[in-house]
Design goal:
Largest sheet: 3 strands, antiparallel
Structural class: mainly beta
Order of helices and strands: EEEEEEEEH
Strand content: over 45%
Shape: globular
Helix content: under 10%
């Protein structure tokens, strides 16, 4: 299995729990208004003084992304590949 890395800015973190992060997508991406949870064990900082983070994922890894309504209830979810995530975050 080959490992890939996606770089994203800390400002896309919507929620930070003890073990995972809830990440949102840029407004101009194909997945705008979607969110996804990721384990902190897959996240690393690029440089200590920078807002850039790296997300490691395997070739065969799929992410479940979801949308919420204004009450915070899930209204839609779908499974996307790491390549789809990379294309939406890295614009």
């Amino acid at each position: 299995m080959k490992w890939n890395k996606i770089f994203f800015n800390k400002r896309y973190i919507r929620y930070d729990s003890r073990k995972s992060l809830l990440i949102t997508f840029p407004k101009k991406s194909d997945l705008a208004d979607y969110y996804f949870w990721v384990s902190k064990s897959l996240i690393g900082s690029v440089r200590e003084d920078d807002d850039l983070l790296g997300l490691m994922y395997g070739d065969d890894f799929d992410f479940t992304v979801f949308k919420e309504n204004h009450f915070g209830e899930k209204i839609e979810s779908k499974t996307v590949s790491g390549a789809d995530i990379k294309g939406s975050v890295c614009r």
